[in-house]
Amino acid sequence: MLRRWKLAIGMLAAALVATACNYAYAPFLIRVDGAVVLTGADLGIGNLNLEADRGLAYRWDDDSSSWVQIPLQVDERIVVDFGAKPSNNNAPASTGTIYGSTAIGHTVLTYADPDTWVGPDDDLTIDDNDEVVFLARDAGPRAPAATPHPAAAIGGLGKEIALVDPDGGTVGYVYLFYGGAGVDSSAGVDHVTYTFSLDAGTYKDDYLRADGPNPESSTVVTDNYTMTFGDRWITDGLSSNWGTGVDILDGHKSRFSFLTCGRSNATFADAEGAFIANIDGPIRAIRAYIGANSGPLTQRTEVFYEDRYEQITDLRVHAIPGVMSYWDWSAAASGMTYRNSEIAAPVTIDGSPDTVPVAVPAWEYIEGAQADITFAGTFSGSFVPTLEQVYVDETTPSFSECWGDGDFYGAAGQAITNAIPNTDPALGAFDTFQAYSVAAVWPTNLDMSVWAPAWAAEVLQSLDATVGIF
């Protein structure tokens, strides 16, 4: 369990306003890099036939005694069949399964996208499983009772959402309403820009679903960072706008072990696969796909916010001996330092070996003029993993990097060292396993030895949300 770090709310809020915030008001809640994600069912609006693009969100401002619109995003979700792995790259495709092929009788609740073979949600209103998203930092004080609804709101529907920080006990409020045709749910804000760019052309016309690779030049750009993608499973660039702006990432990498390159991101991208969704919204972008060699249903979902990056991996594959996942930096990260909760002092990223304990940390960070980035994660499912921390800082390693620049610079992450049972539902009895990790990009003038543990104690802990009528 993560250690809890209790910081004075006033001190933390002041530090955020002074250093980490690129917005013009002090946050009412201290979860500045976090989003609140609620479903239509959570809000009690799933059966009211409300169009998804007409939602409006507000906070109350005591100083001006008025409503202030805040950005809102609704992401449509759908239960969809995975579909069979296509027999060849010329196999016909049609909307209705992830692969665009014949249904196999195994489904998943995931994001809808009319530009993939998943297609649009079959209910274009906000239904029970759709996600309604706003930022915790946009919450405000409670609006006075009987305050009239904002002028842009129509009908009698109003929702008051009370958000409670379980650690600090602070409470913030967000109000949801329904607007007329043509309203702007984003409040004129665009925190993230995701450009999916398939080198071969368009996804439906040119993607090789049976046998890759499918080179990309895709990007995610926010005010705080830029990430680049070379293919499905290939995350190959990361730079911080708070730092020098140099790309410090060789790749986010997955493989069975350091002893083999038989399975890695490179082989995943070179085999069968399909995109579930490529979504670019005002608050977050979503990049979701399946297919990893003999795990054709293995899924990765990447979610991008202005300050943070979330990665969810659902393992669906036959029994395997283990797996590891880690961030491998490039030579451009030289001179930065790495630290986690299990070591007393940072080690320098320089291509020279360091000793880092194998105990899995509660938090990690890298720090330097190039960037300040924090990391945390957790696992869930029916399978209980045996975990070890991995750290390699070596330009002449005794094992292959599999793909990338050939060197390991401060490569850090976790390895599952015990055998993993079958997790593929198409193969009969199966276990489940999901890995969740999050990284956040910060200003380079923060004391990361204080900031990282405080952030990690909050990032895996949801705010408590209570929904009422307003």
Query: How would you write the strand order of the largest sheet?
Result: 15-16-17-18-26-23-22-20-21
Strand content: 35-45%
Largest sheet: 9 strands, antiparallel
User: Which regions have little confidence, pLDDT < 50, spanning 5+ residues?
Assistant: 1-26
Q: What's the count of strands?
A: 27
> Rough shape?
globular
CATH class of the largest domain: Mainly Beta
Structural class, please? mainly beta
Q: Mean of the pLDDT scores?
A: 92
Helix content: under 10%
CATH architecture of the largest domain: Distorted Sandwich
CATH topology (level 3) name of the largest domain:
Beta-galactosidase, Chain A, domain 5
The whole-angstrom Rg is 22 Å
Instruction: For the record, give the distance between the C-alpha atoms at the N and C termini, rounded to a whole number.
Output: 37 Å
Number of helices: 5
From the structure provided, what is the oligomeric state, counting identical versus distinct chains? Answer: single chain
For the record, the count of structural domains works out to 2
Give a nutshell description of this structure.
The chain is mainly β. It has 2 domains: 9-75 and 125-189, no CATH class; 191-457, Distorted Sandwich (Beta-galactosidase, Chain A, domain 5), CATH 2.70.98. It has helices at 9-20, 40-43, 203-206, 265-270, 448-459, and strands at 35-39, 55-61, 66-70, 73-75, 77-81, 107-111, 131-135, 153-164, 171-179, 192-195, 218-222, 225-231, 234-240, 249-255, 274-280, 285-292, 295-304, 308-314, 323-329, 337-340, 347-348, 364-367, 372-381, 387-394, 408-416, 433-442, 464-469.
